[in-house]
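SUBJECT: A protein chain and its fold
Encoding: whole-number codes for local backbone shapes
RECORD BEGINS BELOW THIS LINE
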Amino acid sequence: MDSEKDFIPNSPEAIAGAWDHLCHSYSDDLARASKRKGLAAIELAAIRLELGNRKGLRILDAGCGPGWHGIELALDGHQLVMSDLSPEMLEKTRAAAAAVNVQKPVVIRQEDIRNLPLETASLDAVVSCGTVVSDCGDADAALSEFSRLLKVNGLAMFSVRNLWDSLDSQTSNTDFDEMKHWIESGRRLIRQGHQAFDWLLFTAQGLRAACLDATMELQRVYPVGVVTPPEDDKDIPPYVQLHIDMPDHGPALARAHELFAVARKFRIEDICRPFQPKNQQIRGKPPGR
């Protein structure tokens, strides 16, 4: 179809059509010094820091876009499954993988991150950058899928739109009145941010709640885009390091353009075990005495 308006908002078709339309401009931003490239570099640095020196991990890049993060992780020695709904984005990913000869450890698939045909507990990590979780139409479904696919103690690392930064920036926006003023479970506010999909805006506390609902424990939140990004590639490394070293609380989180979450998959029984009654009999005393 010719227009995004031909699709139901938040449907796979609408999301795919929107990102097909945005594909070239988004990819161009990642190829030059820009706000998007600066934010992506912070996300990648955080992922590498959390993965440490481990190699050969099986990682899903959920909503991979043109493949910027996933291909870098493949070059680090990991096995990547890269999924996206946009055919145009996936063509960019295939070209990028071929350019650096990492086709072998990379599997590229057109799939919806809210419903992925991958085996349960088959992944060591899931990454999802560029606020894909906020923009996928159903963040809870995406996080539940990440949790299902992760091995116990596996990591989900993903970025979301920051509620407080958005509220601050939108007060001068003429479209501010279009915001839907309701908050689900006290943790996130939703507004129509695009014809094709809603924007879900999170707080750090909301991230913790959303992760717990998906059987994951929030380990850390990196503030992303607190200060103006550099206009020259040589200035990106210190810009990235500034954010990596920044504390994950207070003013830094309030001013961040994005919040980059690191969550660990746990088992319900690990949480419940300490509260289960012990059936051990006290020595020398019969039960009930």
Observations:
- Residues 176-183, 280-289 have pLDDT under 50 and may be disordered.
- The radius of gyration is 21 Å.
- The chain has eleven helices and ten strands.
- Residues 8-268 form a domain with the Rossmann fold fold (CATH 3.40.50.150).
